[in-house]
Amino acid sequence: MKTKLLYLFIFFSAFASVVYSQQAKWTIMVYLDGDNNLEGAGIADVNEMEMIGSTSDVNVLVQFDRVPGEDATNGDWTDTRRFRITKDNDQQNISSAVLQNLGEINMGSPQSLIDFVNWSVSNYPAQNYCLVLWDHGGGWKALKGNKSGLKKINVPGLNHVGSISDIVGRGIPDGVKEPNFTNPFSSGFGITKDVCYDDTDGDYLSSDEIGKVLNVLGVRINILGYDACLMAMIENAYEVRNKVDFMVASEETEPGEGWPYNTFLNQLVNNANMSAATLSSVIVSAYQNYYTNYSDKTQTLSALDMSKLSDVIVKIDQLSEELINVKPWTVLGNIYMNIDYFYNRTSLDLFDFADRLSNAAGNANLVTKANNLKQSINEFVISNFTEEGHPGAKGIAIYFPLKSDFNPKYSNNLLNIDFPMDIKWDDFLLSYFNEGENTTIYDPYEPNDEFVQAYGPVNSGFTYKGYIQDKNDFDIYKFTTGSDFNINISLNVPADLDLLLVVKEGDSYYKVDSSYSYGNTNEYISRTNQPAGEYYIIVMPYEVSNSEYELTSDIVGGEGLINLELSYDDGVPDYGLYSTATDFAEGIACLFRLPAAPAKLKGFWFYLYSLDVIPGDGNDGSFWVAGSDYYGSFIPNDYLYYTPGNIGWNYVDLSLYDVTLNSDFFAGMFSDRYNTPAIGWDTTSSNGLNLIYTNLDGYIDWHVSEGTFFIRAVVSVYNNTTGIEETVTLAPGTYSLDNAYPNPFNPSTTISYSIPEEAKVNIEIYDMLGRRVTTLFDGVKTAGKYQTTWNAENCASGIYFYKVSTKNFTQTKKLLLMK
């Protein structure tokens, strides 16, 4: 998670621009962050604005930050500049005068946004102000997906293959899921409301920062517009509730073209007396007219009257409380999959949820409260555009994921956002996830009952909330230090639980300290001058409880690095995937979960099944190496092209380039037209983390690969709870356990595993309480890769675990049976 201070130094400077003493009717402020792969779209939008230009009644102001190596047009400048847009007839070149050249500005800094608004208000005062945040948007996710059919930004030369994300709209590639919090490679970045990603500075504006900026400005924003993906969420609106009259945003992803500025600016210039409510609706209407004939029929945009927000919030709170009391879990399970959702099934339309609940609940109080919420939404949303792809979209979304995708940071204040802290919606989600669905408890850090499954690395100062569900449940957390350290561990307990600190030496584990208080007494461990090493914190049962515990560890010292090789494959591919591309229009990629941020990228591994494009053609196997953090290319252009030396694993060393990662990231290979080799590929699923795209008539279509690409990433993670340790690798031919496919499943799923030597293999299925459900195999296997199928026809829906054990290998993974 990104942590930074918000510097609220508000100041005015002397500017070279002309100060207009006459107050205009409107000042439109476009905070245009093109410091990423959307630079070309930003240039196009400025040219759209110049089709209309500013007048004495309407000021159109732009702060535009560009990026090196993307779009070489318009002088190819890469700094940040301010403009008052003037009218011209040239739709290719920006002709408006540069009022200020600011050098490189971090558009992800709150202070940069403060400075831009203050400059605009000071120099171009108006009766009304509209602030547009222009860039990639994430709704509630740090990464978001584009819809198939989003238009590719046509950048000549190498630039448009320098990043996987060069071909997306204002979201992120299809198939990206919320982090799986039982996976130690999952950092939990998946639930932040972010916008304005600045690739040069590696920063972005989070939703809480936007709210704080608006609260300290000396002016009220009449319209806040998000020309970005997925920002029309109740959580976003609530964060800016005190300083905004109207908000315009999309529930769904936006195409790369974004808003049609010339259309609505033309109407505003011709009627500068229009109100904020009218202009908000005009923007939505212009968007609707522009995309009516668009091939992707999933477009959305809505205008929200923020004066009506408080009533919506009250109605959500009342409905949440009633849901907790009535517990209509079966009803929710029946309607959930039919609720209109956006990008993936975490952001759902709030009205559609209430509507389906009111029609199915049966309980009179629930029906009344759901209908009350629908009525308040109808008053809140003053204009709404949607298409047949989203028949249930009514203009405002809310966070309601599948239980398996729920992010506990939503409810534990780690995101610094107000909605889940003030409203009972998160309490409803927790109640539903912990009491519904066969009354299984949702524990975000399970399974971690064995040292090899330990959750980590643990972050100092963070509070981990988990459950001890039975007397065989041991929750284990891991951290590694590179130097001596002091540690204080506290365990707030709902029952009689115990606390243990263990160190690993060789292949053995030794107790360092423990706390075994009687009854519901909190447990504490404090150690000073503890030597460097690999440590485990264990929460153990004396009693069990359906209530959560809270574990916090404060670690001082022990700074260092942990080197990790991230991979999904089992070491030996079944097939090779050959490229059929005739231009720069096809590629494959893996999305890697970053265990902690920031981190350093060391390099990529590619398993080449063949060096030929087509078997037997004799080409050299060259290809373009691509990678992106958030949305922009982070691999230097002079290192994009790679010629491998052999079939098998090939390493692309990037350690000399000092690449910093701040989030989950992509790695992949693109066709070079004629030399691209075949990449190793298995049919086993990686749960949507492998992507492939094709080009048809100038449009990019992302697909989630049902298989696994043999691509790995090597990273060094730094934080104050980890230290130097050997790189963790999964060498070809070692023991491995793949993700089951399909998962979720009904009623059958296939489990794949590999063993490098003859061994006795045991495969068992367990339920959430640790009870063995069935044994799938118990016998001897020779070295090789195997598959076994579990038919759960006679089992109830819920979470299960599959465990593969040999003398030298044990691993457990989670299954979700959904009937």
Describe what you observe in this structure:
- The chain has 819 residues and is α+β, with helices and mostly antiparallel strands.
- It has five domains: 24-140 and 192-299, Rossmann fold, CATH 3.40.50; 310-435, no CATH class; 451-481 and 483-551, Jelly Rolls; 564-719, Jelly Rolls; 736-817, Immunoglobulin-like (Sandwich).
- It has twelve helices and 44 strands.
- Helix 7 packs parallel to helix 12.
- It is globular, with a radius of gyration of 27 Å.
- The two termini are 35 Å apart.
- Mean pLDDT is 77; it is low at 1-21, 139-193, 581-585, 695-702 and 719-733.
- The portion of residues forming beta strands comes to 25-35%
Low-confidence stretches: 1-21, 139-193, 581-585, 695-702, 719-733
| Number of DSSP helical runs | 12
Overall 3D shape? globular
The fold-level CATH name of the largest domain is Rossmann fold
- Fraction in helix: 10-25%
Strand order of the largest sheet: 4-3-2-1-5-8-9-10-13
- The radius of gyration computed from the alpha-carbon positions, rounded to a whole number of angstroms, is 27 Å
- In CATH terms, what is the architecture of the largest domain? 3-Layer(aba) Sandwich
Mean pLDDT: 77
